[in-house]
Write a structure and sequence with these properties.
This protein is α+β, with helices and mostly antiparallel strands and 119 residues long. The chain has 2 helices and 5 strands.
Length: 119
């Protein structure tokens, strides 16, 4: 009687071992596919506005002797693009999407005040 019980237990365990590993492996692959892509980090750049096209929603900012091209996304960014002019110092908050730098915020940076000393 004990030997039948032992054989039955071994058969169940072996059947389970053969049946479930493929399910575990395939289940792990599906879970990896379902992971949400990482959000792009928001970055900012401050520099001189070299060019701006409010209708197209594009702007170029010179940051540390390097021109950076941005695309304005959203109504607020395009409206703020209309308020700034070439030559202004601006701060642009942006993220990278599909290889492009997309901005949601464009702000005129405060100009540094130089006080002249009277002699």
């Amino acid at each position: 009687m004990k030997s039948r019980w032992f054989l039955w237990l071994m058969a169940v365990l072996m059947g389970s071992a053969l049946a479930f590993p493929p399910a575990i492996i395939f289940g792990a692959e599906k879970m990896e596919e379902k992971k949400a892509p990482e959000k792009a980090k928001a970055q900012s750049a401050t520099g001189e506005l070299v060019s701006a096209d409010a209708k197209m929603g594009t702007l170029t900012v010179k940051v540390k002797q390097k021109d950076m091209a941005f695309t304005a996304e959203g109504k607020a960014a395009k409206e703020s693009l209309e308020k700034v002019k070439v030559g202004d110092t601006v701060t642009v908050s942006y993220t990278e999407k599909d290889g492009k730098m997309v901005t949601n915020s464009i702000k005129a940076a405060k100009a540094e005040k130089k006080e002249e000393k009277k002699m």
